[in-house]
Amino acid sequence: MKKLITLIPVVLLSACAVTDDPSQGGLISGVYGVTSGAYDQRLETRQHNLDALRQAQQGSTLEQSELQIEKSALHVQVAQLRDYSQVLTEELEKLNTHISNQQVATQKAQQRQQSLLKKVSQLQTQAQSLLKATAQSNDQDEMKKLQQEERRLQKEVKALQEDLYVELD
Prior knowledge:
It is a single chain. By secondary structure, the chain is mainly alpha-helical. It has one domain (about 20-169). Helices cover about 90% and strands about 0% of the residues. Helix 3 (about 40-135) packs antiparallel against helix 4.
């Protein structure tokens, strides 16, 4: 019976599977893991993985900071471009208004030019009629009046022509 009592623990111990995973437990596995260095190796592997994850996290944090700075810079740039676009839009509106005003002024100047040309033509016709009348008249007083009227008409024609040329410039 003594043999049987000594064999029971050996049989029981041999029936237990030995593993280096502490979560699989057991006293024998624990003693085996500590003595074989498997636990230390497992801890070292986990520590190495933890260090790699922390380093990756630091890299991600740094990258996130850089992206945040770039995002802020882009927001500033977008705001500046919007402001510049607004300035350009206002300037374009001013230019369009100026162009419209210039077109109206040009149209008025062209109408005035046509009116002045018509008046010049009428005055030239009157001056020619006076010249003919002066040539046919024998009366000295009448002749002087006609010559004065002719000079007045010529001055008026000259003034209108000057106005016309000033407006064309």
